[in-house]
């Protein structure tokens, strides 16, 4: 062995030795923190993700004056100048989640079948199909470390499913309402960053569109709807605070002018009314019947007064109507998605489909995604990815339905929001943690995977509240 080889071998051995010590000490520190503050791991996730979304927008240096023509704006995951801040937040999330998973694994308190295990394994299969198999066997094999972070976060949520959910929902509300406040504040003090001018939407006289702290208007709009749903599910006790956040969030919901979200809201209204007023074991509230009769009567009266065919023809002649009937160019994107799937039917193109290089190759710089979750999965992960998506969505819907009574229908509402957006957007992509889609996805997963039976056993009601406790237990048995 020569002297240079000996020096290199010695240096490499010392580096490996100290690196191993560092990893052990870091892991020990994580376990120590988790032992004392582990119960805050799940509630802290949504606020940190929300902080990352805000940081990404605030530090991006974007200007929305030319938002209609600048294709680089409004892309989820574009970190801009905030990349260092987002890396630190990413490390914080991964550290918290790894500590929570490690602590739960070392304690091993469970002896029976894990609650929510089928949903978690369905998500794991979805992750493997879209992030591992497509990366290895896709048309363009690639390794992207970012797409592996999501499974760590979901595993930590699954590990914390026995912990009370009320604190998590309270922290999520604070984070979302903070985003609503910041969005409105930026619209006043820094409109170039938060308001898109010259927008022709469906509200007469309103020529601006609010992006706020979201990556785009179609990102902040769904977050506003989810914030409204959480306030409906778990309202603030102080009336002034309740109405303040209610009005503030409604303002963002309207100013974002997200047509898909408006349509989802119309669909959700009767669903929430049903869950609020219809009780299968006690009969149906007469108020619900009267409201439904009133709505049906109004629709028939409008059809008698106005000519629906004439109104549709006039609508098609408008810019918005033309965009709707032509699917705003999405049919071309969908054709490309199907073509790439046919090139590799089992595993698709790979995670880098719809990236900069792929868009340049197909000559469609505006195609940042397939604009359909099913076609996104098909094009990026092939038939294996599509099958995993269908199984995961099916189980997610089943768990959301089981939680309907316990969440006043909000779990089903967020699931329906996600499902409808799957038709026009890609709300289940795991490319980055710092966008609205990932926040809504992990929040829904937290709600539906929560083991409410364990929470009820840990709660000991006082004698003075025995009757109300029995009612809550009955509601939980009918829920998750």
Q: What would your notes on this structure say?
A:
The protein is mainly α. Helices cover 68% and strands 2% of the residues. The chain has helices spanning 3-37, 41-58, 83-107, 117-137, 149-159, 166-189, 191-194, 217-233, 239-255, 259-277, 286-305, 308-317, 319-325, 330-343, 356-362, 373-402, 410-424, 436-449, 452-458, 466-478, and strands at 195-196, 209-210, 278-279, 283-284. The chain has a two-stranded antiparallel ribbon. A hairpin with a 3-residue loop joins strand 3 and strand 4 (283-284). Helix 6 crosses helix 8 and helix 14 crosses helix 16. The radius of gyration is 25 Å and the shape is globular. The model is unreliable at 77-81, 322-326 and 454-479 (pLDDT under 50).
Lateral arrangement of strands in the main beta sheet? 1-2
Low-confidence stretches: 77-81, 322-326, 454-479
Number of helical segments with 4 or more residues? 20
SSE arrangement, N to C: HHHHHHHEEHHHEEHHHHHHHHHH
- The whole-number mean of residue pLDDT values reads 80
Residue fraction in strands: under 5%
**Approximate helicity band:** 55-70%
Query: Can you summarize the main beta sheet?
Result: 2 strands, antiparallel
**Number of DSSP strand runs:** 4
Cα-atom Rg, whole angstroms?
25 Å
- Which structural class fits the helix and strand makeup? mainly alpha
Overall, the morphology is globular
* Terminal Cα span: 67 Å
């Amino acid at each position: 062995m020569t002297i240079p080889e000996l020096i290199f071998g010695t240096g490499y051995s010392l580096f490996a030795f100290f690196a191993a010590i560092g990893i052990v000490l870091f892991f020990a520190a994580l376990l120590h923190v988790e032992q004392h503050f582990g119960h805050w791991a799940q509630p802290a996730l949504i606020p940190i993700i929300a902080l990352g979304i805000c940081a990404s927008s605030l530090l991006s240096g974007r200007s929305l004056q030319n938002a209609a023509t600048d294709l680089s704006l409004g892309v989820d995951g574009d970190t801009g100048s905030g990349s260092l801040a987002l890396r630190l937040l990413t490390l914080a999330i991964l550290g918290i989640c790894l500590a929570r998973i490690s602590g739960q694994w070392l304690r091993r308190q469970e002896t029976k079948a894990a609650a929510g295990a089928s949903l978690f394994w369905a998500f794991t299969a979805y992750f493997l199909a879209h992030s591992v198999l497509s990366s290895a066997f896709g048309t363009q094999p690639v390794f992207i470390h970012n797409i592996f972070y999501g499974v760590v976060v979901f595993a930590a949520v699954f590990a914390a499913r026995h912990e009370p959910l009320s604190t998590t929902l309270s922290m999520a509300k604070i984070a979302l309402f903070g985003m609503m406040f910041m969005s409105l504040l930026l619209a006043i003090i820094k409109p170039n960053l938060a308001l898109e001018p010259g927008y022709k939407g469906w509200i007469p006289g309103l020529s601006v569109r609010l992006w706020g702290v979201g990556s785009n208007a179609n990102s902040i709009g769904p977050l506003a709807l989810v914030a409204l749903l959480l306030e409906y599910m778990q309202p603030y006790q102080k009336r002034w605070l309740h109405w303040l956040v209610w009005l503030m969030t409604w303002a963002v919901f309207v100013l974002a002018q997200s047509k898909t979200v408006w349509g989802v809201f119309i669909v959700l209204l009767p669903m929430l009314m049903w869950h609020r007023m219809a009780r299968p074991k006690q009969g149906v509230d007469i108020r619900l019947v009267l409201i439904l009769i009133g709505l049906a009567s109004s629709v028939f009266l409008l059809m008698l007064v106005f000519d629906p065919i004439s109104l549709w023809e006039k609508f098609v002649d408008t810019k918005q109507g033309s965009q709707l009937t032509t699917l705003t160019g999405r049919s071309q994107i969908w054709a490309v998605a199907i073509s790439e799937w046919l090139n590799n039917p089992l595993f698709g193109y790979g995670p880098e489909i719809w990236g900069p290089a792929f868009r340049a190759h197909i000559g469609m710089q505006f195609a940042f995604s397939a604009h359909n979750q099913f076609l996104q999965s098909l094009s990026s992960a092939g038939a294996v990815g599509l099958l995993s998506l269908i199984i995961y969505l099916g189980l997610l819907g089943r768990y959301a339905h089981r939680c309907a009574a316990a969440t006043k229908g909000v779990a089903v509402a967020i699931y329906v929001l996600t499902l409808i957006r799957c038709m026009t957007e890609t709300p289940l992509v795991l490319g980055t943690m710092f966008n609205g889609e990932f926040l809504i996805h992990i929040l829904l997963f937290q709600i539906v995977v929560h083991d409410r039976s364990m929470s009820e056993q840990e709660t000991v009601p006082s004698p003075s509240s025995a009757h109300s406790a029995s009612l809550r237990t009955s509601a939980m048995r009918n829920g998750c």
